[in-house]
């Protein structure tokens, strides 16, 4: 059992022991809390699959497909492939075709959708029809990092299981156990940047984001008037980073910005919140508008420098 899953498991198994279990479940919480691992094990309990069985024919996963035909060929060859940004209506239609047949091995079938937040609008509407009139023995487990992005009608048809974030000390212990070669400063920065998500903390260390975190703190400390730290940040991010690394850098910048915000005076805190909202906007736009990594690094650095300048005004 993963750390922090004790409550969700109690609620799930209590429902499983009842006379009738709800047909649709929504697992909510930050990314990196292990919701997919929970969904997979819960699905196995529903269909009666042993934990060591590699794949069960009555557990269907609907997730991001390959981006295009070229990436699909890579997947078929067992190579790493780039995923599409959304879950498409064709995938939901294909899943619904499966629902016209009986389960393969028993009386139950489970559909896992990960993440349901990324369903295209038409795909979400198509899914809603299955949630409204599910075939006998069919159960849905939807994983959501941002449930507000889901249709209200989808949320209303699901029973929600909430997954809590973890305190920094638990994440630090986890990193010490699983990433013993990482230095203490990197582990501490990862625990702060992860904002309660152990998966995000592990990814932080894997992506080597300790040095960018130090530069971000330096920018916030002195405002970077000569632009030297911003140039260093661009170098550390790299000329051709993948989407995962850029997203992690933006997550890190937001975490650094709000770290210790409760100790600031009201005016400075309000300024930081406004800057944080601009970083949220950047996070939502950077894949859509294909930002140049160097320019994106400069934009991040400029926003963090504003926080440093606000600090000077507040305390100088």
From TrEMBL:
Alphabetical GO biological process terms: DNA-templated DNA replication
InterPro entries named among the record's database cross-references: DNA_Rep/Repair_Clamp_Loader, P-loop_NTPase
Origin superkingdom: Bacteria
Coiled coil (residue ranges): none
Annotated Pfam families: DNA_pol3_delta2
Chain segments carrying region Disordered: 47-80
Biased amino acid composition, Basic and acidic residues: 65-80
GO cellular component entries: DNA polymerase III complex
PANTHER family reported in the protein's UniProt record: DNA POLYMERASE III SUBUNIT DELTA, REPLICATION FACTOR C / DNA POLYMERASE III GAMMA-TAU SUBUNIT
Protein name: AAA family ATPase
Organism per entry: Qipengyuania algicida
